[in-house]
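Notes to self after the Tuesday call (sharing in case useful).
The group wants a holo model before anyone commits to mutagenesis around the pocket. I volunteered. Ligand is zinc ion. Logging inputs and output together so the record is complete.
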Amino acid sequence: MNRPKYHFYPNPHDEYAWTKCPKCYTKTRVRKFCMMIHYGEKPLKFHRMVSLRMDCKFCTECELIIKRKSEIESFLQQLVESWGMKFKPENCFVFGTMDMKDWKQSQQTPFEPSEALKKIAPFKDVLDFKIQPAGWYFTGDKE
Ligand SMILES: [Zn+2]
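Result:
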């Protein structure tokens, strides 16, 4: 695998668009990312890697990718159901990104699984921000 890249915030709050970064208040931009998702039944009888190209909110200062959890899950639900399986949100794990140029290449010639793994940059961390009526606070901050 590549070196870890980007922080990721799976936004559980559908009503929050995060036009500003929850960490530094900078205005977020929209950028397309290729998210790599692992979907696995527990115990691990079945697992598959899914790449999902999506517009995400992005803070260039913090390298923070923000994406609504519900959007990722609804996409995966359709996909998993198309495999004839029942979708369980707890089985999905969004663990990193792939460079768009690698993603484009993989669409023409799919990578071997071992080769694909080398192209994936795992997230540095997955963050969570709690929203309070007056705003929000960063749950990782103990001060
Ligand atoms: Zn930021």
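Two things stood out.
The radius of gyration is 16 Å.
The mean pLDDT is 87.
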